């Protein structure tokens, strides 16, 4: 891309901090709506997280039109149509999504149907297919990783056709994202680790990939700093609300960054591994991050931006004591050290072999699928099939 031109876009209002949820009634009234449909999943409902939202709304004079709490981990067009029917039957006028990536993507797709009418979701698949604003939509993330609350994309499975439908439009962005530390206090250690590594990957790829720009750099750099400073503290003290808030803010900031700068080979490989071996996305990101960075360095790319990231990754003392020509490799080492610490705390796999679910004979298939992933276009170093396969072999057993 031309270094003299870039675009940056993020119109989502972010409401963050203690008692952020209590601001929802005001945000609804400001848009002239008062009858929201809450969309969530069984895990969030069972953990009592949705109760915080219900109470906050009720105390502000807002009652839910209905609550749908059965969004599956991998949502589908059938699920979207069924919830859209509930929205219409209950006379809802807005949507509140409370959950992780699947819930948020599902809510985005539901908003398409209830705003545009009909049940043919596939009609709007692709980029730029939506031509007007949708219904008022609010997102309350319950993980600190996907950044979906500030991204203009969604992916929904069409099970009958055996494909995943992508959607991309600025009209998919919510009116507001509510970041409240209460929503992530009960996250288990392994999910905390995996989702934080997802956010870290968003930030690092945003800072090193081809479409990076000064504004996305600012968000990405700050996200890396927050994750590096607070992740291990939260792993050791999971009920720390300030640490949880810092990780949640980092996820949102990384989401803003990569939405404007794109991601690269880590995501291409992660998407392929997730499809073939059904591993969680955050785990896939953690698995591939250092190996892709090392590949890009060997190709003579990303040395300068990666060297800059040593500062937020390892702190001022390490940065100052590391010779400039060694800072890029020391940044990768810092990521490896963080992964080692997470492995000690919750056994988050560091290699494909450690997952116990990826056999060597699958690597060519993973490489083949990764080559067709759109993310690879923005990787700073080109990679052919054999080179991608070599990265996979490096990630198989790092001994």
Automatic annotation (TrEMBL):
Its cofactor is Fe cation. CDD domains: Fe-ADH-like. Transmembrane segments: none annotated. Pfam families: ADH_Fe_C (PF25137), Fe-ADH (PF00465). Gene3D superfamilies: 3.40.50.1970, Dehydroquinate synthase-like - alpha domain. Residues 192-396 form the Fe-containing alcohol dehydrogenase-like C-terminal domain. Keywords: NAD, Oxidoreductase. One of its GO terms (molecular function) is metal ion binding. InterPro entries: ADH_Fe/GldA, ADH_Fe_C, ADH_Fe_CS, Alcohol_dehydrogenase_Fe. Residues 11-181 form the Alcohol dehydrogenase iron-type/glycerol dehydrogenase GldA domain. The keyword NAD applies. The keyword Membrane does not apply. SUPFAM superfamilies: Dehydroquinate synthase-like. It comes from the Bacteria. PANTHER family: ALCOHOL DEHYDROGENASE, ALCOHOL DEHYDROGENASE 4. Belongs to the iron-containing alcohol dehydrogenase family. This is Alcohol dehydrogenase, class IV. It comes from Hahella chejuensis (strain KCTC 2396).
């Amino acid at each position: 891309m031309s270094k003299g031109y870039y675009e940056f876009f993020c119109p989502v209002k972010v409401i963050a901090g203690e008692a952020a949820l209590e601001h929802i009634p005001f945000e609804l009234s400001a848009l002239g709506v008062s009858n929201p449909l809450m969309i969530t999943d069984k895990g969030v409902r069972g953990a009592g997280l949705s109760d915080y939202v219900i109470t906050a709304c009720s105390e502000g004079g807002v009652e839910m039109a209905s609550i749908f709490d059965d969004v599956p981990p991998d949502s589908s067009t059938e699920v979207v149509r069924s919830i859209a029917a509930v929205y219409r039957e209950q006379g809802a006028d807005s949507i509140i999504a409370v959950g992780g990536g699947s819930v948020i993507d599902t809510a985005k797709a539901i908003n398409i149907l209830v705003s545009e009418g009909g049940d043919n979701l596939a009609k709007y698949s692709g980029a730029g297919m939506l031509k007007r604003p949708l219904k008022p939509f609010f997102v309350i993330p319950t993980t600190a990783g996907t950044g979906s609350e500030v991204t203009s994309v969604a992916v929904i499975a069409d099970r009958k056709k055996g494909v995943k439908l992508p959607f991309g439009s600025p009209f998919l962005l919510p009116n507001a994202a509510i970041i409240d530390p209460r929503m992530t206090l009960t996250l288990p250690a392994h999910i905390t680790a995996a989702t934080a590594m997802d956010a870290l990957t968003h930030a690092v790829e945003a800072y090193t990939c081809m479409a990076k720009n000064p504004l996305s750099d600012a968000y990405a750099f700050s996200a890396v700093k927050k994750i590096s400073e607070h992740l291990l503290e939260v792993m050791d003290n999971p009920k720390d609300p300030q640490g949880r808030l810092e990780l949640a803010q980092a996820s949102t900031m990384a989401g803003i960054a990569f939405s404007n700068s794109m991601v690269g080979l880590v995501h291409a490989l992660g998407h392929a591994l997730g499809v073939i071996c059904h591993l969680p996305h955050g785990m896939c990101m953690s698995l591939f991050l250092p190996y892709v960075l090392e590949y890009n360095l060997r190709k003579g790319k990303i040395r300068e931006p990666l060297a800059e990231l040593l500062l937020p990754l390892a702190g001022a003392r390490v940065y100052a004591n590391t010779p400039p020509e060694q800072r890029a490799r020391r940044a990768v080492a810092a990521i490896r050290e963080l992964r080692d610490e997470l492995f000690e705390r919750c056994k988050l796999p560091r290699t494909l072999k450690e997952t116990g679910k990826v056999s060597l004979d699958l690597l060519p298939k993973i490489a083949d699928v990764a080559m067709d992933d759109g993310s690879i276009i923005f990787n700073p170093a080109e990679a052919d099939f054999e080179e991608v396969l070599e990265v996979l072999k490096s990630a198989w057993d790092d001994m």
